[in-house]
Backbone:
């Protein structure tokens, strides 16, 4: 039961900034690269368009951090699984 509460709180901390933080500005590497491309080749047409635009840079950073944490969790789980199998088998 406690794990479900912690999972709910973690999900809430991830989702709330999407709705609370508005009109923030934070230039990441993608934004800077796009600006540089527009200076070098103003008629360049991107191949793809953004599916979801976060409301601010902080939210984008949060989503990137969550993605990194999930990836680290999966890698840690796989390493632990193989170590456990190696120890028990």
Residues:
């Amino acid at each position: 039961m406690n794990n479900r509460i912690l999972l709910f709180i973690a999900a809430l901390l991830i989702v709330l900034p999407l709705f609370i933080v508005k009109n923030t500005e934070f230039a990441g590497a993608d934004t800077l690269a796009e600006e540089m491309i527009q200076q070098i080749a103003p008629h360049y047409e991107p191949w793809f368009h953004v599916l979801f635009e976060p409301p601010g840079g902080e939210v984008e950073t949060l989503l990137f951090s969550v993605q990194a944490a999930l990836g680290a969790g999966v890698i840690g789980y796989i390493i632990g699984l193989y170590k456990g199998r190696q120890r028990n088998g």
Notes: The two ends are 32 Å apart (CA to CA). Residues 2 and 8 are 10 Å apart (CA to CA). The first helix runs from residue 2 to 20.
